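Handoff note, outgoing to incoming analyst
You'll be picking up this chain. Sequence as last confirmed:
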Amino acid sequence: MTTESVDTARELAAFLRARRERLDPGDFDLPARRQARRTPGLRREEVAELAGVSVDYVVRLEQGRGLRPSSDVVEALARALRLPAAERAYLFDLARQRPREAGTPATSAAAPLSGLVADLSPLPVMLVNHRFDILAWNHEMARLLVDFGTLPPERRNAMWLCLLHPEVRELYVDRERVVREGVAHLRSAWAAHPQDRALTGLIDGFLAADEQFARLWDERDIEVSGRGRKVLRHPDAGTIAVDFEVLAPLQDPGQRLLIFRAADAGSRAALDRLCAG
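Most recent structure output, in case you need it:
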């Protein structure tokens, strides 16, 4: 499977089916039906009833028959399926009902942001775009993860490093969760940037090269994590727990600042020793 072979109508169909099937009918105030349920989740007619659309319309959407629902219908389906914010945005992207970001995707750091990355030392900081391409970094981030300057430009990608770099992939204590969150972000970015061939090619490469990525991609999780914690087992500094924050500059919305802070006193001391070297 490659992302190039999956058009948005088919993905919309698969996403609607997956989200319908995960719902518990007992959570809804629906009329009792005599026939036994043969599949998990809500029936199509129940989703249609909750969304205020015809059953035939839901059937055609789930069959990927090229329909483009209006924003009102997308909103009604999102409510009926009880989608959280990130999945709701993903549904709007698939239906092409969310405004597109102006301009082309960032491939280099905006000068003020590059300067900010340096000024935020001693906190480890890097600047990425929606593909997780690393556009700028400071000394502390390079010491914590890898010397980005020694990598060819096409390998300066946070997801590629986590999946395929032999040293970086071993840093994360909870690697399954880190990869899962990264896959969920890339799926959201893929729907929001349908014309980004570089992103499509990147995802196709991951699907072919990494079984874990392919498995998680098929689960269709959608979650953009702007805050959280990562625990790293560094070969030189030992265990370091960092809290991360992702900031989106108003002037350059296609770029993201990823800032790490030590989560406890021991991690702060280890990070200070590592970055002093």
